[in-house]
Amino acid sequence: MKNEMTKNTLIITVIALVCGVLLGLVHEVTAGPIAAEKQRALEAAYMAVMAEAVSFEEAPDYTAESARQILDQSSDANNDYTNDSIDALMIAKDGSGNVLGYVMDVTAGGGYGGNIKFSMGVDPQGNIQGISITEIAETPGLGMRAQSDPAFLAQFIEMGDDNFTLGTEVQGLTSATITSRCVTKGINAGLAYGKGAGLFEQQ
Question: What total of structural domains would you count in the chain?
């Protein structure tokens, strides 16, 4: 009886080890393609939000720590950026190397289905040139329309106010107030960061 139990334990242990090795191999094989696909999606988003740009370079002065500090300092009663972040800052240039503006990767916290990530292009005056949602898990047919309904994001184009308010400057998505508020606050966070980082020309 003991020998049988020992045998079964060894079999189960070997199976578990083999499964662990196989899972590790699958992760190694798929990690590269997944990362490459995410990078391609980001590059497509950059082109979508700054259509005239031909190249995008990482901003040398950007750090996640400094971005966090700027957002914390910019938070107020109307916009609490505690759960928002600026994940990357790219400099958009034309074919001659002239700066056309900037692209920020923004994580907006507080969506109905979790964080909402998007890329946002702004010109040197701080006016929004485009917004492309890259990650969203809101309710199909409701919050997901933030990504599929162009009229919602079109409200922000060519605007540079970092204090957009849902229900006044911005008309939210029907039956998706939480999603609308999340995206609006994330856009405010991006503009607040741009101002705090000195990216925009004084007008």
Answer: 1
